[in-house]
Design goal:
Metallo-beta-lactamase, Chain A, 6-stranded mixed sheet, alpha+beta, disordered N terminus, 34% helix, 265 residues
Length: 265
């Protein structure tokens, strides 16, 4: 569950020769330090792929464009990890500013598919379907860097919400298994999340996420056995360790957990 405090050490910046984060100034208990807008480019290319331009914040969009122009490049494509406003609200405006196409899955888009390899200016990006946080969530592998852009599926700090009813815990666990398989194969060794800092050890983080979900499910089972009747009853005990400001989001995750337990007792 989001709700960790901001990390004063994470301000975005270059994480590899192919990836740079421009941090949006929208910090909150749910967005951590803010939304990470990722700029991706192959060394030597003048074409940039922008992942998640963020909320409709003209100052942030201009900062992104300034950073692109400072490096002598241009925006050739915008990708969205999912449709939540803190990642995608500005997509139409960014298209107006750049002329670059926007590609996403769901919510009016149908132009991404699982396993597709997108090539822009020599940069290869593999689209990986990772629903669960939302039904339209996608992650993107940069094979040359062995890294995965995860959106909100895995964060740089803390854990994420399964945004029921659009999100599904069953789908989310399957997505974590899919990412774990990529780490086992060596295809992915690091993560570029939608919020929070760069993650150097992808395998350990995925393991933590899977163990955390199993632990939470056990806690929900115990809360029900002790007489909890509603999702809010469960939140009061199981999520007592997270700030109350994120309890509404926790309640969504509990609804997803309850739905999961109906078929996976």
């Amino acid at each position: 569950m989001n709700g960790a405090t901001a990390d004063p050490g994470w301000t975005g910046g270059v994480t590899s020769e192919r990836a740079e984060c421009v941090l949006c100034p929208n910090p909150s208990p749910m967005t951590l330090d803010g939304t990470n807008t990722w700029l991706l480019t192959e060394p030597g290319s003048d074409e940039v792929v922008v992942v998640d331009p963020g909320p409709l914040d003209e100052g942030h969009l201009q900062h992104v464009l300034d950073r692109v122009s400072e490096t002598g490049r241009r925006v050739a494509l915008t990708l969205l990890t999912h449709g939540h406003d803190d990642h995608a609200e500005s997509a139409d405006r960014f298209h107006e500013l750049t002329g670059a196409p926007v590609r996403a899955f769901g919510r009016g888009h149908d132009d991404l598919w699982a396993g597709e390899t997108i090539v822009v200016g020599g940069l290869e990006i593999l689209a990986v379907e990772t629903p669960g946080h939302t039904s339209d969530s996608y992650s993107f592998v940069l094979p040359a860097d062995n890294t995965l852009l995860t959106g909100d599926t895995i964060l740089g700090r803390g854990t994420t919400v399964v945004a029921w009813p659009d999100g599904s815990l069953e789908a989310y666990l399957a997505s974590l298994d899919r990412i774990e398989a990529l780490t086992r194969a060596g295809t992915v060794t690091s993560l570029l999340p939608g919020h929070g800092p760069f993650v150097a050890d992808a395998a350990a983080t995925v393991t933590f996420y899977l163990e955390h979900r199993a632990e939470r499910l056990d806690q929900v089972r115990q809360a029900l056995a002790r007489g909890a009747h509603t999702a809010y009853d469960v939140v009061e005990t199981v999520y007592a360790d997270v700030p109350r400001s994120v309890w509404p989001a926790a309640e969504l995750s509990v609804q997803a957990q309850l739905e999961y337990l109906r078929t996976h007792p």
